[in-house]
Amino acid sequence: MDEQDMKLVVVGAAGRMGQTIIRIIQQTPGVKLHAAVERNGSSFIGKDAGEIAGAGFCGVPVSDDPLAAFLHADGVIDFTAPASSVEFAGLAAQARIVHVIGTTGCTADDEAAFAAAARHARIVKSGNMSLGVNLLGVLVEQAARALPAEGWDIEILEMHHKHKVDAPSGTALLLGEAAAKGRAIDLATQSVRVRDGHTGARPGGTIGFATLRGGSVIGEHSAIFAGEGELLTLSHSALDRTIFARGAVTAALWARAQKPGFYTMLDVLGLSH
Ligand code: NAD
């Protein structure tokens, strides 16, 4: 281990993503696990973070004190829940460190809190940290720009495991935003999130979402461009949670060298334009 290694705190350390991130940190040169945090009252408090993650004893006990955990850290990786991520962004701003946020289901008020924290913290936030999905977003934007709204309907389809609590997924919304950008329309006013009963014909120019939930599916996403007599489908399958964890650690290392601000994975991956 090197003195220069980036000292990372994993919040939500016992979660599906938290455990995956701890394993990836242990395998990645240039970073080390500084602290692991779980919610107050969690049965994992005091247990060894490496053992919880199935990576063997690492000497970092899980704590419920984020303030102490952030004190001498360089960055925080956060796949938890919206209210927690808002709290952690405030603490990361106080500590002037990197905050990588993978949490989805955040409201406009939450996003405003992240933007405020980004005056002092280096925040990287994305509904999907994988290279494949971020490239897919670029391709969806291009396709939406190239295919005229009259004649080409856009639908975003996603499926996730049965434990997921928000819908549509952060990735589905990321793809919807990319399509809306390509079409130069406002997603908030032009999206159809639910259909039920006698809905009438599909309003032209809108972007539709459909959500499937079940089993252990990590993440399936398709952007479907439906024209008269032809269908163009751009899709991504997540086969392993490590794609998100590797992306999050890459984001932390990248952000360490940046000025305080709000960044996305497109900035990290050099895909922004
Ligand atoms: P999970 O429920 O398995 O894990 C979340 C963990 O956070 C839990 O262990 C919970 O106890 C902990 N937690 C909640 N509040 C906390 C607090 N205040 N302090 C400390 N720990 C706290 O969920 P998951 O499947 O790991 O997903 C977590 C989030 O990440 C979800 O919003 C999910 O949609 C998102 N996600 C994002 C990406 C991406 O690439 N951006 C990929 C996968 C999942």
Characterize the structure shown.
The radius of gyration is 19 Å and the shape is elongated. It contains 10 helices and 12 strands. It has a 7-stranded parallel sheet with strand order 3-2-1-4-5-6-12, with helices on both faces. The model has no long low-confidence stretch (mean pLDDT 97). It has helices spanning 16-27, 49-52, 66-70, 82-95, 108-117, 131-146, 170-183, 187-190, 242-256, 265-268; strands at residues 6-11, 31-37, 62-63, 75-78, 98-101, 122-125, 153-160, 191-192, 207-213, 219-227, 230-238, 261-263. β1 (6-11), α1 and β2 (31-37) form a beta-alpha-beta unit. 36% of the residues lie in helices and 24% in strands. The two termini are 37 Å apart. By secondary structure, it is an alpha/beta fold. Nicotinamide-adenine-dinucleotide binds at residues 11-12, 14-18, 37-39, 42, 79-81, 84, 102-105, 126-129, 170, 244.
Radius of gyration: 19 Å
Instruction: Work out the helicity level.
Output: 25-40%
In total, the number of strands is: 12
| Beta content | 15-25%
Count helical runs. 10
User: How widely separated are the two ends?
Assistant: 37 Å
Uncertain runs: none
Overall outline: elongated
Largest sheet features: 7 strands, parallel
Secondary structure class reads alpha/beta
- Order of helix and strand elements from N to C terminus: EHEHEHEHEHEHEHHEEEEHEH
